[in-house]
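Exercise: predict the fold of this chain.
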Amino acid sequence: MELDNSLHQLTKAPFGHTLHHTQIQSKCGGFLVYDTRNDDTKIAQTDKINVLNLNTLVSENLYTCTEANEFGPGVGAATFSPKENRVLFIHGTKNASENKPYSMTRRTGVAVDLSFPEKPIYMDARNIYPPFTLGALRGGTHSHCWHSSLDLISFTYNDFVLETNAAPQSDIDLRTVGVMFPQAVMVPMDEEQENNSGEMFAVIVAKVTNNPIFGSDEIDKAFDECWLGEKRSIAFQGNVKSETGATKTEIFIVDLPQDLTQSTNLLQGTLTSRCAVPNGVNQYRITNTTKGISSFRHWLRSNKKGTMVYFLCEDKNNITQLHCVEIQSKKVTQLSFHSSSIHSPININQTDTAIVYFVDNKIVIFNLLNNEMEVVFKNEKKLQLSGIPHFDLYKPIVYFNAYVNNSNSNENFLQIFKLEI
């Protein structure tokens, strides 16, 4: 394919090359990490995590699932640590089968060091059998995100025990947000291979409620979060009920205490109750929009000072636009004014001066210094853009995914591109 001088296709192999929504580049800047999905919904069938050397453009296999089948275990959604050459990704349970397939509640976080490929490090512990284990969860962590400076990793979570428990008056499985930090947790091993020990102590930090009171700040779903810059705080999307009972999504924050191991209730939960939130976690709402922020799936983004959160929301014409909320004042501002909707999640650069996204199958950069936008890739060759664009950590470059037809098989495969800006 003939491309613009500023555009380079970095991968060409006949399989998918899926970039996660964040932290795709190594701290040295020399590698990108991806999983081999060709379809965002196919983690169960995906068995490889690869890294791409940006100097040689050679891909190397970092981890391969053993005994992979159509039901799992499945791997995907890989991120680089900002402090060491370690990659973290979703990994389905070891015993994946037709009767026990990969699912939202049957996965965990696994890391691999670049120096020791194929050697999995189970990060969060999992124990689905009572008595449950302090510091272990009972379901599936996913969409892991490293804190930029602290030894903390955030994630979203679904609970297997509550999902499968039909007891009356039991809590139900509701997606929520959690955090893990270095402190090894040992759990009893089981013949079913459902459990695993972990290098990290994991807790839930967003409080969700089975039946939120209409018009209140109670939520029944917490999801798609970001760290608030260098702070010990997380911004996340939470589903509330309006005065009339309609669901809408607003933005919430949790401030985390230094000690996340103490709670008046059981951090590990019970057969009928969800895992408790640690003492000292402060949860509060910072938006109160008319219809809620956008239901188009995206992840929140923050500046490094942790004073501003960027997000997507529909304007008065129902067009999805870039917005921001100033945390202290809770003032919401519409930033972009496109004639058609943004159709990708967003990413912010390292200097907090620009945000990148897709509009009209083009790549747009919004300048946060002067509130002007620029189309940096007009896509005249009509590439089918997919996923989320990313800024390089150190250079004026944007990485993104697009489908390319393979002439040998006549199939379209997701490839990685580099755009010099």
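Check your answer against the key: The longest helix spans residues 160-164.
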